[in-house]
Each structure stands twice: as C-alpha cells, then as structure tokens.
Amino acid sequence: MKKTALMIGAGPAGLTAAYEFTKRTAITPIVLEKSQAMGGLSRTVVYKNNRIDIGGHRFFSKSDRVMRWWMNVMPVEKTTDTTHSLGYQGQRYTLETPDSIPDPATHDRVLLVRQRRSRIYFIRKFFDYPLKLTTGTLSKLGLVRTARIGVSYLRARLMEIRPETTLEQFLINRFGRELYKTFFKSYTEKVWGVPCNQISAEWGAQRIKGLSLTKAVLHHVRKLVSVGRGGLSQKDTETSLIEKFLYPKLGPGQLWEYVAADVEAAGGEILTGWTVERVHVDANCITGITARHANGELRRFTADYFLSTMPVKELVRAIDQPPPANVREVSEGLIYRDFLTVGLLLDELELKESPKAGGLLKDNWIYIQEPDVKVGRMQIFNNWSPYLVADPTKVWVGLEYFCDEGDELWRKSDDDMIAFAKDEMERIGIIRASNVRDATVIRVEKTYPAYFGTYSRFKEIQNYIDQFENLFLIGRNGMHKYNNQDHSMLTAMTAVDNIIAGVTDKENIWAVNSEMEYHEEKERRPVGKEPAVAMQ
C-alpha cells in the first residue's frame, strides 16, 4: 500500500517536509494546520490590503540547499544587473537572471533583492547595527562612555568568564560589560521578560554564536576596502552582518502559499482548522492522532510517519500513554514568550532619513533600546517590499511588543494597545500620533521558546520522544529551539532524508542549529542536485 506522512503544522518546517515528500518520494504528505493561514510564524497577515510580516523574515541562508530551494519555488527578480553573486560553502556561485524572469511590477511570483539596514535607537539617537567605529558613533556615545566600552572589552578578552553558563556571561565575553549594558541588556530583557543572568548561554550560541565586537569591526573594515563588489556573496559573513537578502514580493507568507499549492497539485493534502488532541502510541511507534476541527468534528488520522511542529508541551500532554513523571515535569516547566504587533499606517514619520533632505528612513527594522518604553522593535514594511503597502504615499510600520499570554499588555483591548503604542512612539520622537491614519493589532502565541524554566533538562524530553521510531520533531516549537526559518526548513529536510534512508536515529536533526554548516557536503554539487541523505 502507498505510504503516507502526516505533518502537524503548516509552518516552514511542516510545508518543507510535505514539499520534499512530493518531490523526492512516493510518500503522500498530509498537513494538518490549526489556523487557516500558511507559513506559521512566517505567514503574511493582510489588513486592508496592507501586509504585515510577523517578526521580519530575511530570505538568506548559509545553506546552499535552502537558497536553491527558495529560488526553485520563486525566481529572483530581473534587475539592471544581469547576475547576482551568491556564496555557497565558501564557493562563489553566480545566479544569472535571464529575460524569462518576470518583472515584479507586473508579476507576483518573484523574489526581490533587498538591501539590509537595521539600526539601534538609543538615547534618542540612531546607531548603526552592528556598531561601527566611526566618528559619528563615537560622538554620539561621548568620549567617556566610549573609553569605558574600550577598556571593558579589553578586560573581557583578557579575563573571560568561565564556565560560561548564562546569556549575560556569553554577551560580556564577546562585547565587554559596558557595551553589553549599553546595547544588549535592555533589549534582550524586553524580549524575554527575565534578567539575562537567568537565561541559558545556549540562546546566544543559537542566535549570535559567531558574532563579537572584533568581528563587527573587521567586517566594517573589509566593507570599506571592497566598495563596489556588491552582490550576495556572504557565506562567510555572520548572519547578523548580512547586508543583502531575498524577499518575496508580497511577504514571506506568499512563498509558503505557493509551496502549499504545489504540494496539493502533486497529490498531497493541506487540511486547515484541525487541532491535535490525542497522539496514539503502541510500544515505540505512533499509530495515529485524533484531531478536532473548528466545526467540532473529531477525526482519527493514521500514517506511516509523523512529523510534529506543534509545541512540545502540547505534544507531551496529547500522548495517550502517560509519559514518565520526569518527562511530564520538564514539559510542564517549559516556557514560551508571546508576541504582538501593532500595525500603524501613517502619513509620515517624524524622524527623516536626513535632516536636510528628508525622506523615509531606509531601515528594515529599528531596535528600540530606550528603557522608558516597552516597544522592542519597529519594522518599516515599505523597505521590506514596496508591495506590502497599499498606498505608496503612506508609511506602514509594525511595532513589536514581547509579552506573556495573559499579562497586562496581552489583555489590553485593541484600541487601548493602539493608543499605548502611539503614545510610546510619540514620546521617543519617532512619530506624531496625529499622523496615524489606521491601525491594527496582531497577537501571536508561543512565538519564542524560552531558554529558561526547565529548559536545562530538555534532554529528558528529547530522549523520551526520540524512542518513537516514526515520530520526528522539527521546526522551532516542535523542537523547542529558537530556529530561524532556514534552520526549521533544514530540520524538515533532514527528517525526510532519514526517512528515505531508513534512519531512525534523530541526532542529525537535533544537530541543525544557527551557525553550523547544516550538514551540507563540503564539495560543490551541481545546482539543483540534492543529496540522498544529509551528511552527518
């Protein structure tokens, strides 16, 4: 009989797995999605024809496998340059843009080439991110603070904190205590809601493993001596320093909507409105799941393979044979950070690109480091893609707040939250409330799996779940791992690799993280040629 694979969740991991099954196997994929949207945290929310990117998604990866995958789904726009230079495994690969690639002005299925710019807003001033040792930066910081930062960094390099167990120690070791307190502490604690000395250093290893003040300075020097080279040749560039990226014309969800349509066209199923309630197990195998539809219908699904992106806490609760007490204890102690975005449509921003020339700020996003407001980051959607904004004469921004489900921010009505956000942004001088023409609020649960609570014991859950030979945890919430979009995709690709090869060990899936080489083969492969099994 024909085999089936069931994916729980239609985010990047779930849809990538489904797509891989249709392209590389005879296994029929079935995707169950709780909502009606494709893309999970990478979906695009549409409000009155204005589009919101939840959290901001740069389409750039150090994995050539992922880069090719994206470009197979959506071609790169044809620009005045006939080529784009991409970096794969330390090799330079030139992507040509032939005449057959459609013009984004008239066609939608196009990846745009976008310039990355993000800055820090602190003491009511802009600082480049990453920090650059320019006269402008030094003058804004002031001589005394600059001297303290330099001395503090030298001290940190000479006397590293060992063992390095907390995020605070991780950041001090790489940036010095003074720079950590100036530019990292406030924002990071806004994101997580707890002090940095209560967060595991593993979060830093997951997100900014290779970045340090030294590398930021060296990157700036290399940029100065290579002006004019351009391109996307950034394979050896730390993720936080990438300066060009690809982006779907209509936001990240557009790509995942195409992927879902391609899966269905190939014979797969995408079923929306289904919430998993029970996971049925027999010995070391999953035999099926029971899910409830939004209309109340209860249905049992069976499959040969199960790939789960649902939050680990919910998965453990759903298993019909009670897990061991220690596994339940760790699972119940896992913590998630929630997220809400306030979208504001404005006539203009109060701050301009140049005091003399004026014009819209060119940032994709701005980190709000000011400790007197709760807003953590502002996205300017016009700069992600001009096609995200219905009226090009308006400015469409997203104000990001990090919170816990049920706390004061989460409980605010939409009107109160909009008023609160407008007041904060006017107080720090970025907007005038009178320039706001429309607004909306979007709440997202379990956006960030936290590296505190019982996370230090997560291996106990991993060991228990991995015993089920036909169950594969993938994606951010599926693995309780703060993955980027491309990392989530790679966990799905690796799971499919294992299924094709009959591999039941899951270690190569868990090994996918933010700054490794993603199990790619070191020798260069012809473009479009995929490995049968990811290298370990």
- CATH fold-level topology of the largest domain: FAD/NAD(P)-binding domain
Number of DSSP helical runs: 18
Strand order of the largest sheet: 9-8-17-18-19-16-20
Q: What is the CATH superfamily of the largest domain?
A: FAD/NAD(P)-binding domain
Class by SSE composition: alpha/beta
Domain count: the total is 3
Name of the level-1 CATH class of the largest domain:
Alpha Beta
% residues in beta strands? 15-25%
Helical percentage: 25-40%
Calculate the terminal CA-CA distance, rounded to whole Å: 31 Å
The CATH architecture of the largest domain is 3-Layer(bba) Sandwich
Sheet of most strands? 7 strands, mixed
Q: What form results from the Cα inertia axes?
A: globular
Q: What's the rounded overall pLDDT mean?
A: 86
Descriptive report:
With 536 residues, the protein is α/β, with parallel strands linked by helices. The protein has 3 domains: 4-41 and 254-334 and 457-510, 3-Layer(bba) Sandwich (FAD/NAD(P)-binding domain); 129-218, Orthogonal Bundle (protoporphyrinogen ix oxidase, domain 3); 336-449, Polyamine Oxidase, Chain A, domain 2, CATH 3.90.660. It is built from 18 helices and 21 strands. The strands form 6 sheets. Strands 9-8-17-18-19-16-20 form a 7-stranded mixed beta sheet. It has a 5-stranded parallel beta sheet with strand order 11-2-1-15-21. Strand 17 (365-368) and strand 18 (377-380) form a beta hairpin. The longest helix is centred in the last third of the chain and has 17 residues, at 485-501. The relative contact order is 0.17.
